[in-house]
Amino acid sequence: MAPRANWKGFLKVAEVSCPVALYTAASTSERIAFHTINRATGNRVHREFVDSETGKPVEKDDQVKGYEVASGDFVVLTPEEVAAAVPESDKTLAISAFIGCDDIDEVYFDKPYYLGPADKSAHDAFALIREGMRKKNVAAIGQAILFKRARTLLIRPHGDGLVATTLNYDYEVNAAAEAFDDIPAMKLEGEMLELAQHIIKTKTGKFDPSTFEDRYDDALADLVKAKIEGKPIEIRKPAPPDKVVDLMAALRESAGMGGKASGKSAPKKEAAAKSKTTAKSKTAPKAAPRRKAG
């Protein structure tokens, strides 16, 4: 059964257009989800909006949007006024430019969607756009009204279809300087840098998402299963605080050298370590299928 499309419209490149459909590419719906329960009665608890001053419940028809202009002072907007701000959609995903596939900083990536032809009549035009982009090794920047908002998307060839990633607006992306300003400029060289490069080489592998494990979600599934079966639950003790270690000693230990100076030993061990890493990557087991509670 084909998945349900989140959006349908027309992909337009200059005068070439074709009907397309947008599908969710990543979802959290399979994660373990909990309800809030009244411990005393065992009944579900429902969320309710109450007046912050009177404490009385506010009916849905009396709930309106408000923007705080000063402490406790709000500009109130009716549902009709908010709806008037939603941009009108013409169901068109218009391509405005083609760029190099690596020209955009990935910090702007928001959410991925699969983009495919909406019906058989679109196959030729869709394939033409996809293969043209693939041959030129470019991505497309497009704009569309998605879910009541004007969105910019980065579109790239992906197998037999396209993947369209919504992009964050510039004002939504924090400046890197805010996070990195306190990092001092340092000059690293000599044995320390050589050891770091050696460790990186021995750990080199390939991207394989099937090996990623959601250990928290798996643990929750096991916990729910144990509770259903009436098994005792072992409460984990807090982990002891990490000890302060010598960076050089840690690098040597990671490189399998103990406390010895690197000298010429690192390259000799590198081939053996790389061989073990390669053999391990070939036989790495796939992640176990998601376990459902109950």
Automatic annotation (TrEMBL):
<keyword id="KW-0238">DNA-binding</keyword>
<protein>
    <recommendedName>
        <fullName>Non-homologous end joining protein Ku</fullName>
    </recommendedName>
</protein>
<dbReference type="InterPro" id="IPR016194">
    <property type="entry name" value="SPOC-like_C_dom_sf"/>
</dbReference>
<comment type="similarity">
    <text>Belongs to the prokaryotic Ku family.</text>
</comment>
<feature type="compositionally biased region" description="Low complexity">
    <location>
        <begin position="274"/>
        <end position="287"/>
    </location>
</feature>
<keyword id="KW-0233">DNA recombination</keyword>
<feature type="domain" description="Ku">
    <location>
        <begin position="55"/>
        <end position="185"/>
    </location>
</feature>
<dbReference type="GO" id="GO:0003690">
    <property type="term" value="F:double-stranded DNA binding"/>
</dbReference>
<feature type="region of interest" description="Disordered">
    <location>
        <begin position="256"/>
        <end position="294"/>
    </location>
</feature>
<dbReference type="Pfam" id="PF02735">
    <property type="entry name" value="Ku"/>
</dbReference>
<comment type="function">
    <text>With LigD forms a non-homologous end joining (NHEJ) DNA repair enzyme, which repairs dsDNA breaks with reduced fidelity. Binds linear dsDNA with 5'- and 3'- overhangs but not closed circular dsDNA nor ssDNA. Recruits and stimulates the ligase activity of LigD.</text>
</comment>
<dbReference type="GO" id="GO:0006310">
    <property type="term" value="P:DNA recombination"/>
</dbReference>
<keyword id="KW-0227">DNA damage</keyword>
<dbReference type="GO" id="GO:0006303">
    <property type="term" value="P:double-strand break repair via nonhomologous end joining"/>
</dbReference>
<dbReference type="InterPro" id="IPR009187">
    <property type="entry name" value="Prok_Ku"/>
</dbReference>
<keyword id="KW-0234">DNA repair</keyword>
<dbReference type="InterPro" id="IPR006164">
    <property type="entry name" value="DNA_bd_Ku70/Ku80"/>
</dbReference>
<comment type="subunit">
    <text>Homodimer. Interacts with LigD.</text>
</comment>
